[in-house]
Each structure stands twice: as structure tokens, then as C-alpha cells.
Amino acid sequence: MDQPEEAYCATPERPEAAPDEGPPFAECVLCREPTEYPESVRGITLCPVCEWQEAQRTACSG
Prior knowledge:
This protein is of the alpha+beta class and 62 residues long. The protein is 29% helix and 13% strand.
């Protein structure tokens, strides 16, 4: 364990998505980041990070 904990837990910077990459994407209803879903998708859309966090919350709730 030669690495300091900060280096291990550091979050890499996300590259900014160019606006002309594919169809317009829906924004996350929690953090307003772009999702993997097109704007035409109905219902609640979450970005990958919020989707993962929501899955953790529902898995841990009794």
C-alpha cells in the first residue's frame, strides 16, 4: 500500500461532451447533467452517476 489514500480515491476529471455528438440528450432530473438517453425518452431520466447512487439507495433500504 504505497499509494496515499487521496490518490486512490481521486475522481478523474470528466471530459466535456461536444454539443454535436449525437442526438440531444435529456438532462438528469437530479443534477441536470446530460444523460445517456435522448430527449424523446419519457419518464424520469438519470445520469449514470445518479442512476448508480439511486440503485445503491434502493438496494440498501430494507
